[in-house]
Write a structure and sequence with these properties.
Blueprint (H helix, E strand, L loop, with lengths): L8 H30 L2 H23 L6 H12 L8 H22 L3 H17 L6 H10 L7 H25 L8
Helix pairs in contact: 1-7, 2-3, 2-7, 3-6, 3-7, 4-5, 4-6, 4-7, 5-6
Length: 187
């Protein structure tokens, strides 16, 4: 019998269950660290980008939105190549893509799709992201995609939010397995 005889039977049961679950958690944690240390960094990057792309395709198909687009693939690569970077932080991912979509829609509505309008939109988005400390370079491409959309001006904003949320959730799930640590490193 354990050394905590002074506890009631129900308290002993709870304590024993906690110790077993802690042991299980430690074992799972060791497996995660082992997987992360056994994979070459290039393999971790490839697995992270590939799994994120599949998640984007699946969620995009389910909601009827084009989520598997170049800026989100670039975001996935930043998240798995440099998860500790401020550019990989959720605030930069969500804020950058949202701001990029809004700037793209606004400039496209006001100035059209001319090359000068595109250059202005990309410049404005980059400067605003930098000023707000949410710089996320792939989101500058989101700006240009949003600028080129015709019709529903809210679609680029919805796509930006859905894609960013999908990538953050994918990183939360994948990071412990691929990198041996939780995501996000910073908010």
């Amino acid at each position: 019998m354990p050394h905590y005889r002074w506890l009631s039977n129900s308290h002993r049961t709870v304590l024993d269950a906690h110790r077993r679950s802690s042991h299980h958690s430690a074992a799972v944690s060791r497996v995660r660290r082992s997987l992360a240390t056994r994979l070459h960094p290039v393999a971790r990057l490839g697995a992270g980008v590939g799994a994120s792309a599949l998640a984007l395709a699946a969620i995009g198909g389910a909601i009827g939105a084009p989520l598997l687009i170049a800026p989100f693939a670039a975001t996935a690569s930043i998240k798995h190549a440099m998860p500790e970077s401020p550019m990989a932080a959720p605030r930069s991912v969500v804020g950058g893509h949202l701001l990029g979509a809004l700037v793209g829609v606004a400039v496209g509505t006001l100035l059209g799709e001319a090359a000068l309008a595109m250059a202005f939109a990309a410049t404005a988005a980059a400067m605003l992201m930098m000023s707000l400390q949410i710089l996320h370079p792939p989101a500058i491409a989101t700006t240009l995609i949003a600028l080129q959309q015709h019709g529903d001006h809210w679609l680029p904003v919805q796509v930006a939010l859905a894609g960013a949320a999908t990538l953050i959730l994918a990183a939360i799930v994948l990071s412990p397995l691929l990198h041996g640590r939780p995501y996000p490193v910073r908010w």
